[in-house]
């Protein structure tokens, strides 16, 4: 039996040209006006790719990916074993409890540990429905300091609203490595948003309100910084609940120019975030050329003076707000971590 090859007879090139030339000419003429219109809309559309705001801070360093993954795995293991004691409690009444969260512990694990603490406590004031415990604020995994947990849904709604509306005053302490600033106090104003790759970035203040890839909007971001110590030379200052009234103002409109060859200093700063944006203090420290020590995501030193850092050195120092039930003014302070105390010859009284 002979198998004949399958042959397909194709029309000649001339025939193809004759067959398709008219439809192609017709399609081009019919759509030319429409395509010109689309092109004009893209050029004038503020959401088109060429008109998206350009981030002013650099992308995530390539080294950060593996380091952050290892840190996350370590934190997950550590957090699963975490338990609270009365030593972690900074404030408590029948509506709220404030916890001093350690570095490298996830907020959700702190929340999960609260029921055991309240159940074992004899001075919590009232019976608490454990299902109504709620995180009023969140801290990054490696940020230590004050976390507030509410004991009822109604109180949670009021306090979360106060955080959202920036009615809660906050201070943070950060250990940075970079060129020592010439200013003592400075207020930074910029935009804040996610780049097309999902990373949080600094944007120009004039870009606030503009649309980013994915449809999100550039939001305003404002932080007041106060230098406390440079190279362990300085004197600890008590924070001001209202922030420092007099400071230089930096309105960010272009990329920062940092000379990487200059001598690097150790700088301890206090930050007063006026807005509540994700990674706000970390981003502004990076922009200033003095990223937080250990903050590899935002160019912070991973190794410094023969030591490797397991996380960034940022601490939620204080919170002040109007109590959501009693309307009294509440001030909560967290002891300073040991890394902050090392900047001062005499240890501050309020330390961990």
From TrEMBL:
GO terms for molecular function: pseudouridine synthase activity; RNA binding. InterPro entries: PsdUridine_synth_cat_dom_sf (IPR020103), PsdUridine_synth_RluA-like_CS (IPR006224), PsdUridine_synth_RsuA/RluA (IPR006145), RluA_PseudoU_synthase (IPR050188). PROSITE patterns: PSI_RLU (PS01129). Residues 96-286 form the Pseudouridine synthase RsuA/RluA-like domain. Coiled coil: none annotated. One of its GO terms (biological process) is enzyme-directed rRNA pseudouridine synthesis. CDD domains: PseudoU_synth_RluA_like (cd02869). It catalyses: a uridine in RNA = a pseudouridine in RNA. This is RNA pseudouridine synthase 1-like. It comes from Coffea arabica. The lineage of its organism: Eukaryota, Viridiplantae, Streptophyta, Embryophyta, Tracheophyta. The gene is LOC113727783.
